[in-house]
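Write out the 3D structure for:
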Amino acid sequence: MKKTSYSILFILIAVSSLFSACSKEQIELVTQDLSYQLDPDYISVNIPDTFKFDPANVIYLTGQKNITLHGTNDETTTTIIGGNEIHFTVRIKKEFDNDVTLRLVKDPALMNSYPEDISKYKEILEESFSIPETILERGKKETTFTLTFQQVEKLNEIPGYLLPLRLEIVGAANDLKVSETNYFVMVKLDIEYAKENIVPGNEPFNGVLFNDIITFDSPKSQGLGSLKDGAFTGSSWYPNDKNTPLIIKIPEKETIKGIVINTEGRWALGHFTVFSEGNSVDIKQGEFSISKQTAQINVQFKEPVTTNTFRLENLLTYTQGPQPDLCEVRLVR
């Protein structure tokens, strides 16, 4: 019995030692095996910059970065289509505790990133525009700039002008910065020499009609001879599409009262634009438009035009269909 007690005691001591050994190994596995520890350099080195926290508030321009406006010049006055003002909206990511003063400043360096060829465009001078500073009021999330064109008569050169503008914060504003992407806007003003020099309607007018010294030209050359063969019906020339122009040339500059065009049938001419060649530039004289079939088109200029070249574009039938028939074309002295 005593031997049995000693045996049992021995077994308990052995089992206790075994569990103690296992427990010790488990502790050593966690505390002593360094392969299971995180390298502190790994944490700081491998987190990308995009995930870094930036507490700054951001202010930015909304809308398009490249804006194109259109203007016309009639050799005396420049008119900006849509008016002389344009507005830009500025927003802030979250409401700010104070009023913030903002401005748009001209920055010619921005022109280097314009997505089109602008080599022939001129910079708009400071005297031709104004943009007052604006205040983003405390607690508000947006405000507006107003660009006003002034002395627009000086904006008279083709193809036009560029105004590159950059957003700035005036003065110090802690925890507020301008967006790194939406911080600029490019304003392009395209100028076209244009008049409204065509008498409305289709009434005949006095003058001497001629085409004996006219030379016609067009990308669509077939049929051009019919435009001065003396036949007002039958033979004709027609454009491939509305993008096919007809060019009318005479040897020397003359003062021309208008243009007379004979046409016929369901393909009768009804709509087109008239350009004249000026001093190395084209001048849009106006648009002719009628919506009923007629055998003769009478284009009378309000003021006679002195030139040696006219160009007819956007040629359409009276129903605004393609490929109108032109039978004879004459100028009027």
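Confidence is low (pLDDT under 50) at residues 1-15, 17-36, 38-47.
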